Amino acid sequence: MENKFAFGKKIIKEAGKFILSRMFAPVTVETKSRFDDLVTSLDKETQDLLVSRILDVYPEDKILAEESQTNASITDDRVWVIDPIDGTTNFIVQKSDFVVMLSYFEKGVGKFGLIYDVVNDQLFSGGPDFRAQLNGNPLETYESRPLNETLIISNAGMFARNSHGVADLAAQTLGSRTYGSAGLSMSRVMSGKAILYTSCVYPWDYAAAAVIGQTLGYEVLTLSGEQPDYQTRQEIMFFPTEEKSIIQTYIH
Amino acid sequence: MENKFAFGKKIIKEAGKFILSRMFAPVTVETKSRFDDLVTSLDKETQDLLVSRILDVYPEDKILAEESQTNASITDDRVWVIDPIDGTTNFIVQKSDFVVMLSYFEKGVGKFGLIYDVVNDQLFSGGPDFRAQLNGNPLETYESRPLNETLIISNAGMFARNSHGVADLAAQTLGSRTYGSAGLSMSRVMSGKAILYTSCVYPWDYAAAAVIGQTLGYEVLTLSGEQPDYQTRQEIMFFPTEEKSIIQTYIH
């Protein structure tokens, strides 16, 4: 597994370089489900690059990826979960605040996760057999703090609608932030910069953080308190397990 | 004025170094108007540092500053507007996403503004006689784009309440972000990363961006479309003048 982890780190950095080299060139933007659900030609090219690198070295492995037509199931034997550009809208409009995410699962068990903030060259990595790190420096496990000394990070619409009590929880904290990238947001949670992230997202948006985070005391649940299904788009939260009961006082 | 502008840049960098040197030491946090309106001992010390540097060199000048008991009026002859730490909550919880802001006015006319993102060492500067720059590189004047290719940055509560139509405008764009620092947010607008910033803020929160922004085609108005008063806390927006009529279709 150590080789595979090193390989993952190598190709995610390569994907980052690829994005940087093309970031200011014209990209084709297409809409997916609605006008504000976007994908660029670079999302697809970056995914193709990662998939081809993986299948070159591990031809038997399977892929669960954002821009795929057909996808493996998370319970398959050896599955790479890929989000080539998480925060595509930020990528298009801001040229910052986006990440590449990669994680690896065997029969539903996460082995390692990688979140790469390309513009800031920050790589979050970890898994059950690898200490969670940011650019090689160990991340600290969660240390409990009262809600009123923290922030939450939320999808703007879910905060506005008080979906499942998100705004009720936010009102107990110092406020809510919205960054537009699941990976970036969950990295901030794992860095102690916010107590919770919530949004309505797909497996490739939370898989890497779920794997890295569990070694630091964090977990992903749906807002109803269930395990995420690693298949459909769901309203999820990423938070420290130690605060589960107080968080579920507000979010249920 | 060139000397004063250079002096302003020198002391804002000094303030940044001062904050960095004390950032991870214990700070005293006090609440102001309510539990989530915070000030730290470092806000006050940083303001004291800036005020003492200014009055050493320009003993006749006046001060309009966040942590002051008494303040000059913006229409006074020579006024420095100071926000020692804008984004105090981010500073406390995240140790990032905060800025120092400094601007200089004569009889209500802005002469230069400075916004310093301390952690990322990014200094936005400019004024009517100084080309707007980021770390010495010229910033581009606003280039028109359709709303549906942009983002807005909003205070989370104002978006949630659809205050003055903020959410109606957001619905025409690719979405809303919330960063928790006025200066950081307005810097993003001036960098073309969002079309509008809106929040409920004080003069020291918008003065610097107003002065830098006007040379790039941006302005500050209240959400009712009036000039801000540079005295009280008001709901304001910072946006490109060229898009005023389309923005005011939604925000009024």
TrEMBL record, chains A, B:
InterPro entries in UniProt: Inositol_monophosphatase-like
This protein's name: Inositol monophosphatase family protein
Source organism (scientific name): Streptococcus caprae
Organism taxonomic ancestry: Bacteria, Bacillati, Bacillota, Bacilli, Lactobacillales
